[in-house]
Amino acid sequence: MALEISGNYLGLQQAIRSVHREGLVVTASYYGDRMNAxxxxxxxxxxxxxxxxSMPVWGCSSRWQPxxxxxxxxxxxxxxxxxxxxxVKR
Length: 90
What we know:
Blueprint: E1 2-4, H1 9-18, E2 24-27, H2 43-47, E3 50-53, H3 70-82
Parallel strand pairs: 1-2, 2-3
């Protein structure tokens, strides 16, 4: 699994390239710049990847409501960062 949080298309492209066949790419960001292209011709189609947007925005609830509300999601992310279970690089 790859988690992409930069909102940058190059980061998303690298996330797609980094997972194994039939892997999962989760985005927690917004890709609003339509000037950049995303190449889905190779890794995505051939490796049968799943891409999922995890960010509940514009009033959309989390996919895992009611067990995972926004408060629990935020606290879990903070806890994982504190326990160094997430690697965050610039």
